[in-house]
């Protein structure tokens, strides 16, 4: 016999889902980032320790500025690190921890910054 939720619980869950959907729409209308944008920004924040906040490395430091570089160039370099084609001290290890989609998203994100 299939289990069903009690009517009050199902009604409460439906109400919660509707409230969350409404809050998300309100946040987007108010200019707040959508959940996917926040997820991407959090992913990009993992690069901040070496490459600076939003890929804006400090001038004179050994790491390069990622913000504003062409996305296709960034992706090519990330893939070269991942394959070992481009030597590195740590980037070859870091890039192996990301999926192809994540690397593409990071390249697009940093490429879109000024």
Write structural notes for this entry.
This protein is mostly helical. The protein has a domain at 46-111: Cytochrome c-like domain (Cytochrome Bc1 Complex, Chain D, domain 2). Helices cover 60% and strands 0% of the residues. The protein is built from 6 helices and no strands. Helix 2 packs across helix 6 (100-111) and helix 4 packs antiparallel against helix 6 (100-111). The N and C termini lie far apart (59 Å). The mean pLDDT is 83. Residues 26-114 form the Cytochrome c domain. InterPro entries: Cyt_c-like_dom (IPR009056), Cyt_c-like_dom_sf (IPR036909), Cytochrome_c_Oxidase_Subunit (IPR050597).
Write the layout of secondary structure elements.
Blueprint: H1 7-29, H2 35-45, H3 48-51, H4 71-83, H5 91-95, H6 100-111
Helix pairs in contact: 2-6, 4-6
User: What name goes with the CATH superfamily of the domain at 46-111?
Assistant: Cytochrome c-like domain
Please report the distance between the alpha carbons of the first and last residues: 59 Å
What is Rg? 20 Å
Question: Count of DSSP E strands?
Answer: 0
What do the pLDDT scores average to? Answer: 83
Architecture per CATH nomenclature, i.e. the level-2 architecture of the domain at 46-111: Orthogonal Bundle
What is the CATH class of the domain at 46-111?
Answer: Mainly Alpha
Alpha-beta classification: mainly alpha
- N-to-C order of helices and strands: HHHHHH
The CATH topology assignment of the domain at 46-111 is: Cytochrome Bc1 Complex, Chain D, domain 2
Number of helices: 6
């Amino acid at each position: 016999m299939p289990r069903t939720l009690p009517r009050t619980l199902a009604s409460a869950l439906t109400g919660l889902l509707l409230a969350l959907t409404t809050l998300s729409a309100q946040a987007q209308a108010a200019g707040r980032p959508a959940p996917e944008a926040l997820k991407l920004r959090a992913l990009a924040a993992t690069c901040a320790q070496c490459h600076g906040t939003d890929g804006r490395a400090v001038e004179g430091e050994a790491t390069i500025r990622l913000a504003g570089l062409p996305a296709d160039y960034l992706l090519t370099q990330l893939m070269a690190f991942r394959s070992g084609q481009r030597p590195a001290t740590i980037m070859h290890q870091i890039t192996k921890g990301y999926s192809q989609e994540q690397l593409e998203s990071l390249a697009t994100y940093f490429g879109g910054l000024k």
